[in-house]
Specification:
Length: about 450
């Protein structure tokens, strides 16, 4: 595709992530739209994600692009509102030669876009959020919950609690409260908790919190009255810090509180500090990674050149790294697609979709990209759009997070039948036909 000087100026004004010199020298660009939450109740958490996503795309360009194809990012602000997310999608999907892949960073937006992307032939990566049943690529051809979804989070956090207690049998008769965002995001965790409840005989206390979650006194009054043995939190943005402050106020032990991965990052704890010591959260593989090779390379090739998207001191923090990982997965799917459809060519959304379905990120490949010690291998297929079910737990020591578990792996024998049953239900409701094996080759 050709970029006219006028179009180039407009693109740069919109905040794209490559320099004018690079753009003029390199006409081939791969467009990665970025749906951001830099305003609203999730801003402290969504902003580092957007910055990490942008910085990694700049690093890819500094490395020479995707086999010579430069990345182009344009942001659109959703403020974590579903209607605004859909508007952003419609505005960006056809720009700059067409969107490669969307990462909405919102379960509500994911649910809405799941209806649209098959017609537009644009894939969607929803690492760690969205529809857990979209792991089933036989029904959800365009959705990719790469490296984890909420049933992985719920299963691994329960595994961790059971291990601390001395085994699954020790949970029988115990009470586990679930404090969750009263939205599709919050409710998406519940099926795996309820499935494990049936298997192991613990009691579940459901405590939905209305968005944005700044008023939780009634919730924590119930916690104080019921005294559950553990609290699992499926919270996001200001809701997490509020929950921790209310737990402290009511005297609930932080050592018995466990967040899922959107409830365990530095912005959640910085205003609580030492009082939150002992609080843990399950992580979608990485945690804070200041020593990772990819972080050092971003500091050297992006920030040291004055091109960093956000503050230098957040580089390597938990949510920044999640943005970096999201960008890496987006890029590596395109690289995989180029192996089939033409090295050094711009991939369409449809071609990129094939790449995400045929990812084979070995440990050697991840290490070479700078993710040694950060991530485990990821391998997708036609019917497995997740590719990896690894997680770890980290614990707040009063000032920072430190690892508190070995690698955990979600129980796929438990999760796969849940995924298939839910996907089949969705297919029946929407009158969709499961993909034929021949479709897996195209």
């Amino acid at each position: 595709m050709k970029l006219s000087t006028l179009a180039l100026a407009a693109t740069l004004a919109a905040g794209s992530l490559f320099t004018a010199t690079a753009a003029l020298a390199q006409a081939k660009v791969q467009f990665f739209p970025s749906l951001t939450g830099r305003t609203g109740p999730v801003a402290p958490n969504a902003t580092p994600f957007a910055n990490g996503y942008a910085d990694y795309m700049k690093l890819v360009n500094a490395r020479g692009g995707i086999n010579g194809v430069q990345t182009l990012v344009e942001e659109c602000e959703t403020a974590y509102a579903t209607d605004r997310g859909v508007e952003c999608y419609e505005r960006l999907k056809g720009k700059h030669g067409g969107a490669t892949v969307f990462q909405p960073l919102s379960t509500g937006i994911t649910f809405a876009l799941t209806e649209k992307i098959p017609n537009d032939k644009i894939p969607m990566i929803t690492s760690g959020y969205g529809r857990s049943d979209s792991q089933d690529g036989g029904v959800f051809k365009w959705n990719f919950p790469l490296i984890g979804h909420y049933w992985v989070a719920g299963d691994t956090v329960l595994q961790h609690i059971a291990k601390k207690e001395g085994g699954w049998d020790k949970l029988k008769g115990k009470k586990i409260a679930v404090v969750y965002h009263d939205s599709p995001f919050g409710k998406e965790l519940l099926p795996i908790i309820q499935e494990r409840q049936k298997m192991h005989g613990f009691e579940v206390q459901l405590l939905p919190v209305p968005a944005p979650g700044v008023e939780q006194k009634a919730i924590w009054l119930q916690v104080r009255q019921q005294r559950p043995d553990f609290v699992i939190m499926q919270t996001w943005g200001v809701m997490t810090a509020t929950a921790l402050k209310e737990a402290i106020a009511t005297g609930y032990p932080r050592e018995k509180m466990f967040g899922t991965w959107w409830s365990g990052a530095e912005p959640d704890l910085k205003d609580v500090g030492a009082a939150a010591k002992g609080y843990s959260a399950v992580m979608m593989q990485h945690g804070a990674e200041p020593q990772a090779a990819v972080v050092k390379e971003i500091l050297d090739k992006v920030h040291a050149k004055g091109q960093g998207t956000g503050p230098k001191d957040e580089v390597g923090q938990v949510l920044y790294m999640r943005g970096v990982v999201g960008a890496m997965l987006a890029v590596e799917g395109v690289r995989a697609a180029q192996e089939r459809f033409g090295k050094g060519k711009v991939m369409t959304g449809e071609q990129a979709r094939w790449g995400y379905e045929n990812l084979d990120l070995t440990q050697a490949k991840l290490d070479a990209l700078g993710f040694k010690g950060v991530m485990r291998p990821v391998s997708t297929s036609c019917f497995n759009h997740m590719g990896s079910a690894w997680a770890r737990v980290h614990t707040w020591d009063g000032a920072k997070f430190t690892w508190a578990s070995d690698w955990l792996q979600a129980d796929e024998q438990l999760i796969k039948p849940m995924v298939k049953a839910s996907a089949e239900k969705y297919a029946a409701e929407k009158k969709l036909t499961r993909r034929a094996p021949a479709d897996c080759q195209s």
